[in-house]
Amino acid sequence: MKDKLVTLIGGGGFLGRYIAQELLAGGARVRIVERNPRKAWFLKPLGGLGQTQFAAADVTRPDTIARVVAGSDAVVYLVGTWGPNFKGVQQDGLRAAAEAARAAGAEAFVDISTIGADPNSDSKYYATKGAGEAAARGAFPGTTILRPSVVFGPEDKFINRFAAMVATLPAVPVLKPGARFQPVHVVDVAKAVARVLADPMAHAGKTYELAGPEVIAMRDLVRWLAEAIGRSPSIVELPDIAGNVLSMLGFLPLAPIKRDQWKMMQTDNVATGTLPGLSALGIMPTPMEAVAASWLVRYRKAGRFGTRAAA
Questions:
Q1: For the purposes of burial, counting CB atoms within 10 Å of the CB of 284, is it exposed (0-12), middle (13-18) or buried (19 or more)?
Q2: Facing residues of 216 across strands?
Q3: Residue pLDDT, tens place only, 77-93
Q4: Which of 27, 138, 185, 268 is most buried as measured by Cβ atoms within 10 A of its Cβ?
Q5: pLDDT digits over 248-286, tens only?
Q6: 145: number of CA atoms within 13 Å, CB side?
Q7: C-alpha 94: how far from its chain's center?
Q8: For residue 70, what are the CA distances in angstroms to 105, 178, 186, 188, 202?
Q9: Under 8 Å between Cβ of 50 and 24
């Protein structure tokens, strides 16, 4: 990847910053595209002089996408949304990016999708992710699709959200306690992108499921977090009827769950086993317990001083 220009559309987000770091370390030039590029300027120190570029674009406006993709050797589409414009962002915007990449003569186009993507899903998130995959392949036949499960890392909004609840609430309500996930480390996903772009022809047109080494139910995740941060709240497993009612109030500002998120939880977010995964890219999946303690320590009663010294 040395001196190749990789454009990361949505590169200033949680996953994008790790992908940028992997690519920069490999000698690539990286163009970070955001609606407001200033929010991604914290990435500047990761690269050498002139190695990192920043550009503004709105994925719902194809003309802005075409401008920022020009000159790219590879393009990675990282943009997603929890609504309301699912189709505009995850289907039409993705198609426009793939068309722009093809017009620019890019060697590779990578779509960061999700396990569960299915155009026939009741969930708008999953449905538009699935339709977006087809749209990208229609515009750029060699599109490589990466489908991660729930991505965890220091800045994630999943593990940290529940850790904060465990740390502050005397009783933690758990919706859909039996729902299963296969959390994947953010660094592993970033490495997967770098491996794909290092040899784009070998991965063109393929779909990979990126999942961690363990499948865990929601109730067990909350219990594990409680143990990891030394807390002991009551764990209240709510019946599905309660989750269904709460999700109907998802339009309210402080609602605990959106309607579409509830629909997503009706399907386990685990690898099907019918598609290649991290091992096919030469990556050993990272267990949560191997790395999570380094940032979960902030949720302990005494922070890092609350950890036990090694014997």
A1: exposed
A2: 181
A3: 999 999 899 999 999 99
A4: 185
A5: 998 888 788 999 999 999 999 999 999 999 999 999 999
A6: 24
A7: 15
A8: 9, 46, 28, 28, 24
A9: no
